[in-house]
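Weekly sync, protein design subgroup
Attendees: M.S., D.O., the rotation student, P.L. (late)

Item 1: inverse folding check
M.S. brought a backbone from last month's batch and wanted to see whether the design step gives back something sensible before we order anything. D.O. pointed out we never logged the input encoding, so this time it goes straight into the notes. Structure tokens as presented (177 positions):
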């Protein structure tokens, strides 16, 4: 395999690996009973995405990357539950009783396996596969090529949500990761 034909995928993978590593650090000291709870600051509940919603939401996107690059994504296909409760249109809610969302183990496993598969897929993809028009019409105006879309999904999108996770950690008294 000629590495010169895999430049774009390797560039995208580098950002994805950074985001995945950052997410792993963000999980440090997060307990399952906190995972799907809104943070509190000075006794006030802050309605902002909690780690369960963040990682669950992010876990929906690797399937798109893998599928759009022509590979089998069946092993990382989100469940109907994940698709419903973590979609871009879903509202993050405070899971006081721990009954609204999948478990921390399930969400973290879906996030990890999805991004590992997506990273592997973009690294193996030839540059030409990224130069085609973005097949997602709704996102095409923002991300016209497959490269720009996948760079966002595996880079900027992760980091945007890691900022939310970082703020949640600080409000929960867990400090920086």
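Designed sequence read out in the meeting:
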């Amino acid at each position: 395999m000629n590495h010169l034909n895999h430049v774009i995928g390797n560039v995208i993978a580098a950002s994805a690996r950074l985001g995945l590593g950052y997410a792993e650090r963000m999980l440090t000291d997060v307990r399952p009973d906190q995972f799907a709870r809104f943070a509190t600051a000075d006794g006030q509940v802050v309605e902002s995405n909690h780690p369960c919603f963040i990682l669950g939401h992010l876990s929906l996107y690797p399937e798109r990357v893998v599928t759009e690059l022509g590979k089998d994504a069946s092993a990382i296909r989100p469940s109907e539950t994940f698709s419903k409760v973590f979609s871009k249109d879903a509202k993050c809610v405070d899971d006081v009783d721990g009954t609204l969302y999948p478990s921390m183990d399930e969400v973290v496993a879906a996030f990890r396996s999805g991004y590992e598969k997506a990273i592997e897929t973009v690294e193996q993809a030839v540059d030409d596969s990224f130069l085609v028009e973005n097949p997602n019409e709704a996102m095409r105006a923002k991300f016209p090529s497959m490269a720009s879309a996948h760079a966002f999904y595996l880079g900027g999108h992760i980091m945007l949500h890691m900022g939310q996770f970082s703020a949640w950690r600080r409000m929960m008294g867990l400090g920086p990761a």
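Discussion: Helices lie at 7-26, 51-58, 61-68, 80-85, 104-124, 137-140, 146-171. The chain has a mean pLDDT of 95.
Action: P.L. to compare against the previous round before Friday.
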